[in-house]
Structures are given as structure tokens and as C-alpha cells.
Amino acid sequence: MADNLTPGQQAQKRASEMKLNARVKAFADYLLPFEGFDPVARKGPGEKFLTIGHGHYGPDVKPGARITKQQAKVLLDKDIRKRIPELEALLPRFSSFPMSAQQAIFGEFYRGSIGKSPETRRLINEGKFGDAAAEFLDNDEYRNRVKLNRRGIGPRMENVTLELMKMQQMLESR
Fold first, then answer.
1. What is d(CA 174, CA 171) in angstroms, rounded to the nearest whole number?
2. Does the N-terminal or the C-terminal CB of the chain have fewer CB atoms within 10 Å?
3. Can you give the pLDDT of all 174 residues of the chain as single tens digits?
């Protein structure tokens, strides 16, 4: 028995790993069109740290750093796997949401906005998805996205709002 697990436990572990791998792929597929690929570390407007690859951001990204697409893919996979439990800690019912909502919400968590929006998280956790949708877009970063030269965040944030509204409609139709 590998790792002292029974055959049933081994099967359960494999099934859990397969489910996680499928979620990681779904989140990566969602993120890639938004994140693109930067082979050289760059600093975005208003950002404290550099970004490289497919949106990897943080103090570990050094000026002048370069990355291949394969290295960026590995880093993205690692970043997603690290962030899933972080997001699930903030939104305990996250994994029960429709996949399209999980993707949109994860995309904004990856970008950093869901983590900085305690009121939106509170409303989501209370199942007040319509209120959460309105609250999420009620912020200066969204309002000033053009002035800040961050136009790309609009569609991402609006996707979250659309998914939250769909979840609200599902609740109301029950």
C-alpha cells in the first residue's frame, strides 16, 4: 500500500487529485487570455512588485528577469494551486459554485481584487449574490480603470458581476 493507504483510500486520493487538476486547468484556461505572456519582468502602473510570465507577481520577481513559456506555465500552475485553498478560506462555499462563476471569481482573486474586497466577500458568503455583484464594481479601481491605464480589468470585473447575478437569479428561481 502506497503511503499506507488502503486501495479505497488510494482511489479516493487519485480522484481528488484528478478533480484538482481539472480545476487548475479550468482556471488556467480562463486566466491565459487575460494575463497573456510577458517573457521579461515588468512593473505595471501603480504596482509595488514586478510581474512576469502569465501574471506571476511578487517580491520574488527581480528586475531584468526572463522566463520561457514553459517556465511560465509551470509557475502559473503552482500559483493557481497555492491560491485555491487561500480563496476557499475566504469563500468557504466557493467549490460549490458553478464552474463559470468559480473561474471568474478565481480570476479576480488571482488579480488581487476579491482579496481586497471584504464587503463583497461577506455578501457572497451570506448568499447575497446580487448585492455582492453591485458592491464589487463599486470601487475606485474599476471606476478609474481608463485613467489608470488598466482597461483590461473592466471585462474581468464585469465577468464576476455577471456570474454573481446568474447565481442570484438561480436562487430566486428556486
1. 6
2. C
3. 457 899 999 999 999 999 999 999 999 999 999 999 999 999 987 789 999 999 999 999 999 999 999 999 999 999 999 999 999 999 999 999 999 999 999 999 999 899 899 999 999 999 999 999 999 999 998 999 888 888 789 999 999 999 999 999 999 998
Residue 27 C-alpha cell reads as 482556471
Residue 104: CB atoms within 10 A of its CB come to 24
Question: Locate cell 448585492: which residue?
Answer: 131
pTM of the entire predicted model: 0.91
Q: Is 35 a catalytic residue?
A: yes
Q: Which residue has the cell 458553478?
A: 98
* CA distances to 5, 24, 136 from 18, in Å: 17, 10, 32
